[in-house]
Amino acid sequence: MSTNRGSIEELIYDSCLVLDDNDYDGYMALCAPDFTYKLSAYSPEVKREMAWLDHGRSEIEELFKTLPKHNSDRNPLTRNAIVYKVRIDDDHKQADVVTRLQIFKTALNGGHTELFAVGKYLDTVSLKGEQPVLLNRHVKLDTRDLGWGYHVPF
Q1: Count of the separate structural domains present in the chain
Q2: DSSP for 101-137?
Q3: What range does the domain containing 18 cover?
Q4: Distance (Å, whole) CA 62 – CA 65
Q5: pTM summary value
Q6: If you average pLDDT over residues 107-127, what whole number do you get?
Q7: Whole-angstrom distance, CA of residue 115 vs CA of residue 126
Q8: Residues 6+ apart with CB under 8 A from 4
């Protein structure tokens, strides 16, 4: 099977759309059975990367199931992603993808939208099946102050 850049980009953009809609089953449908997810940010104070979330597929699925029980900020998030690089490795049937990410938060009443966070997706995409799927997603944020109550993966 030959996978083109367009189908890989569509996967990345689809992952943003389903998360924007809080469609967690839709998000997991875009992920490989052995999917891993990491959320991190670099801290200049301690001079190292801080891992805020580092989960396998079952842990992410459990997080999605328990979201209604969390005391969370319910203001909707909108992800704006731009795929910068796609490196396809035909021998290993996967691609490494670098995507710049901006996340906006809109007040529930729709009255105010603000830039919430910026960073990038460092994704590994499996090309072994009919369609590309996310194998690993590392969300590396530039923003470190997210306030309280955001348990939803970016």
Answers
A1: 1
A2: EEEEEE-TTSS-EEEEEEEEEEEEEE-SSSS-EEEEE
A3: 5-141
A4: 5
A5: 0.91
A6: 93
A7: 31
A8: none
